[in-house]
Design a protein that fits this description.
Nucleotidyltransferase, domain 5; DHBP synthase; 9-stranded mixed β-sheet; 5-stranded mixed β-sheet; 20 helices
């Protein structure tokens, strides 16, 4: 029997670094580095994710046949970074100095760092940034051929690409280049609205339904959308080519108000700007995919890149009926570049067979029953161990009403969403749960919506959606007669960011919701990520326990173990109150 071919895909040194391990073309492990370091959006070389992948596969770094890096750093540096600073000189001195520090200490030494930090001595291959995005979606889509679109901030030069996948071949046909970028437009307005770039764009998407598109004239001043799907930004309003900020006084003059300072009050003005940005983004994406359909015809569409996480735009594309089906890579941001890089090497260097469809995103590590029980005993905490039937019955009953439950099971999710293994869950029928989870568990803005998880076979009975949505990347309307039944997951505009679940994707999560449906006749629950604001999603039982003990969460399920907050020792609860006061002051 021939030795398996192992390929690592790596993405790092910008944000959301990750590692992906592929064995004979099958994705067997993928994880974000932040989950292990507990540093949100960690950009470091994903050393810990690599260690966990090797441990999971039962191999060593010597067994790795190739490493694929998700972009071409030298091309990026010499073809874009240096020429851009020369073009805007003498503006941008501070930005230039900061960039040079990053490049000279890390980004120009990638092969040396990989060999030194990982102990790897084999070949390293470099893929173009948007090719990695495209590969991350197409190769695992299950489609025999597809139109492929990638949209993000910027790679080497490209910010938007259109391509075609057919069998094992993948080729990009058309590109839009920096500084003209839909992703950077969204990030710039995110910055103007007082949110953090490269991490809070989804907040702007969540804020948009509270506003009206009253600033479309200003948006069209910022970006010109052309009929052929291309676009151009008016760069006099943006600082990102040379500055330490995304925008400056010009955009403040355009909108007639200064940029919002972080944590300051959100007014109707901010909501209307967010809605207008979302509207222009949807228009741009629709024109791009229409052009893609014309240039690279197919019944199927694959989407990747950070803008593909805009699930409202995705929902509009699906509803337009241009394509029979759409596959959106769940790790559409830079973390997904690790997956795409590995698959490009498998197909192009090793001429491998076509990769199977990605049926789920549970690709991280897991913990045994023994490991979990050992932690609970070590912490001297009371718990109840239940068999599956009793566990699902008990938790389904506890979900009824206003209890908020941490749900920790199986392998960790790959991508930015919790999809049922590192989740906080609650009853979608209880309107008050929206605010309770936002303010008392997540410590986040009250406007932020929650996603529903729904049994896939029941999705059409509750939502205006007739396809699967396992990665929470499609927004559709809650059916009018259902909105009052599940108010905690229906946004102010009547929409919901839907996750569907089948039993073969996640048996334990499915069985829990099925049991909840038996009790309530409702196959829908709240699902949000298991973390508090500012922290990555929990990775280990210890992380989950810390989150449970330091929030107002009512119950925690770790595998087969059920913990009740009311049973926790008094000294633990006193520590919780001290933590909460500090957090709320911060």
């Amino acid at each position: 029997m021939p030795k398996p071919i192992y390929i690592f895909g790596l993405s790092c040194y910008y944000h959301d670094s990750a590692a992906c391990l592929v064995k004979d073309g099958e994705v067997i492990f993928a994880a974000h580095e932040e989950r292990y370091t507990r540093k949100k959006h960690d950009d470091a070389l994903p050393k810990r994710a690599v260690e966990q992948a090797l441990k999971f596969a039962g191999i060593t770094i010597k067994d790795i046949d190739a490493v694929g890096f998700y972009e071409k750093p030298l091309l990026k540096f010499f073809d874009r970074i240096i020429p851009t600073y020369m073009k805007v000189w003498p503006r941008g001195l501070r930005s230039y100095q900061a960039a040079m520090q990053e490049w000279m200490t890390k980004k120009l030494w990638i092969p040396q760092n990989i060999k030194k930090e990982l102990g790897y001595t084999g070949p390293i291959y470099y893929c173009q940034h948007h090719e990695s995005h495209a590969a991350s979606a197409y190769y695992v889509s299950g489609f025999p051929q597809a139109t492929v679109v990638t949209v993000d901030g910027v790679g080497e030069w490209a910010t938007t690409t259109i391509g075609k996948g057919e069998g094992t071949s993948l080729a990009l046909k058309e590109e839009i280049h920096f500084p003209h970028s839909l992703g950077l437009l969204y990030s710039a307005i995110t910055y103007y609205l007082g949110f953090k770039v490269n991490s809070a764009e989804y907040k702007v998407m969540g804020l948009a339904p509270y506003g009206q598109p009253t600033y479309m004239r200003e948006m069209r001043e910022l970006i010109e959308l052309k009929e052929d799907g291309s676009f151009r930004l008016n760069m006099k309003y943006f600082n990102y080519e040379y500055g330490m900020t995304m925008t400056g006084r010009a955009i403040e003059k355009l909108f007639g108000q200064p940029a919002r300072k972080p944590e300051k009050e959100l007014t109707q003005f901010h909501k209307d700007v967010a809605r207008s940005l979302q509207e222009i983004t949807e228009q741009a994406m629709m024109k791009i995919v229409m052009r893609a359909k014309e240039l690279c015809p197919s019944d199927y569409l694959c989407l990747a890149g950070g803008v593909a996480l805009n699930c409202v735009a995705n929902g509009k594309i699906l509803k337009a009926g241009l394509f029979k089906d759409i596959f959106i890579q769940p790790a559409s941001g830079d973390a997904g570049g690790a997956l795409g890089g590995a698959l490009l090497i498998w197909h192009r260097v090793f001429n491998g067979a076509r990769t199977k469809k990605m049926e789920h995103a549970f690709l991280g590590n897991e913990y045994s029953t023994e490991e979990i029980e050992s932690l609970l005993r070590q912490q001297n905490l009371p718990y109840e161990r239940l068999d599956d039937g009793a566990l699902f019955d008990s938790v389904a009953s506890l979900l009824e009403g206003d209890n908020v439950i941490g749900w920790f099971q199986g392998r960790m999710e790959y991508g930015p969403r919790s999809l049922g293994n590192r989740s906080i869950i609650a009853d979608a029928r209880n309107r008050e749960n929206w605010q309770k989870v936002n303010l008392k568990i997540k410590f986040r803005e009250s406007f932020r919506p929650f996603a529903p998880t729904v049994l896939e076979e029941k999705v059409g009975e509750w939502f205006a959606l007739n396809v699967e949505s396992p990665y929470m990347l499609l927004v559709a309307d809650t059916l009018p007669h259902r909105r009052e039944q599940i108010p905690a997951v229906t946004h102010v505009d009547g929409s919901a960011r839907i996750q569907t679940i089948r039993r073969d994707q996640n048996p334990r999560y499915y069985d829990l919701i099925k049991k909840f449906e038996e009790k309530t006749q409702c196959p829908v629950i709240i699902n949000t990520s298991f973390n508090v604001r500012g922290e990555p999603i929990v990775e280990s039982p210890k992380d989950a326990l810390n989150c449970f003990l330091n929030t107002h969460m009512d119950y925690l399920v770790l595998g087969s173990f059920l913990l009740n907050k009311k049973d926790m020792p008094a000294e633990v609860l006193r520590e919780q109150e001290t933590y909460l006061k500090k957090f709320e002051l911060d």
